[in-house]
Write a structure and sequence with these properties.
The chain has four domains: 32 residues; 51 residues; 79 residues; 79 residues, Alpha-Beta Plaits (2-Layer Sandwich), CATH 3.30.70. Strand 1 and strand 2 form a beta hairpin. The chain has 287 residues and is of the alpha+beta class. The chain starts with 13 loop residues before the first helix and ends in a 6-residue tail after the last helix. 37% of the residues lie in helices and 23% in strands.
Length: 287
């Protein structure tokens, strides 16, 4: 004769019951094809399944996984990024906004147009990009070189296009454009029969570093010349190829008076105008 096991009663909400049934299915604890919570509890009691804390991860570990997830997205490795997303979603340490961000990503990893862009860039295939901004204006660009790069925790499409009208960069960079990807909700992407260019437009900019920055400066990959310390007080000269005055100005602004643009004159003048506008905003007289 079969022996009857002793029964226990679980008082759980419908939501918790559904979660237990999901876990039972996940671990093969079923009666026929239906999830069986009793078998799940029995497996835990027999230590066939281990129960572990779900709130003991450090912020550093979560941040490292999030950095890895975004890096994989940038590389177009969406399946791998989704695996990390699922891992993060299973943790209870996540803040509500972060959890919502992860769930949004898992429900819609990449819009179709973004996947098309990634594929075309990988194939080095020029394309036509058309999208509508928040003001319902339609913009179209013939893209001849592009890459997706993370800048200051956002993803941007940096590209070189045939079009230059309305570009605020200096001469020599006016075919370069920067688009923040999360601001493009929908777009049309069509491949075109043109030649893929090797790089963005670039110009060489010389700037001088003084004070502590002259000693602490570390060479960047875009630098084509970095001098030894010269003069008294010490000065270091740097020549760098830049593809965007916007991002270049954003970098050197934090260096303050220890960084001075020397040439070309158009870049120096544009930076001076930016400084004048800043001073005027604070009611400072500028000659």
């Amino acid at each position: 004769m079969s022996r009857k096991g002793k029964s226990i009663t679980l008082s759980v909400s419908d939501k918790d019951k559904a979660e237990l049934e999901t876990l039972a299915l996940e671990f093969g604890c079923t009666w026929g094809d239906r999830p069986n919570i009793s078998k799940l509890v029995e497996s835990i009691a027999r230590r066939q399944l281990m129960v572990a804390p779900n709130n003991d991860w450090t912020n550093q570990r979560i941040e490292a996984l999030e950095i890895a997830r975004k890096a994989l997205i940038d590389l177009g490795k969406i399946d791998e990024a989704k695996e990390i997303g699922q891992l993060l979603k299973s943790r209870s340490e996540l803040t509500l906004p972060f959890r919502e961000e992860i769930e949004t990503f898992l429900n819609n990893p990449l819009p179709a147009w973004r996947q098309q862009v990634d594929n075309l860039i990988h194939r080095q295939q020029p394309f036509r990009l058309s999208y509508q901004d928040a003001a319902e204006r339609v913009w179209s660009y013939t893209v001849l070189h592009a890459r997706v790069v993370p800048i200051e925790k956002r993803q941007y499409l940096i590209c070189r296009a045939e079009e230059s009208q309305g570009n605020q960069y200096v001469e020599g960079l006016r075919h370069n454009w920067t688009f923040r990807l999360d601001r493009i909700q929908e777009a049309a992407v069509v491949s075109i029969d043109q030649v893929w260019l090797d790089d963005l437009e670039t110009i060489a900019v010389e700037f001088h570093l003084s004070g502590g920055l002259a000693f602490a400066y570390q060479r960047k990959t875009e630098d084509i010349f970095v001098s030894e310390l010269e003069g008294e007080p010490p000065l270091r000269k740097v020549v760098r190829n830049i593809s965007s005055t916007f991002w270049f100005f954003r970098e050197i602004t934090r260096y303050g008076k220890d960084c001075t643009i020397v040439s070309p004159q158009e870049v120096r003048s544009q930076f001076r105008e930016n400084l004048k506008s800043l001073c005027q905003a604070y009611d400072l007289d500028v000659i």
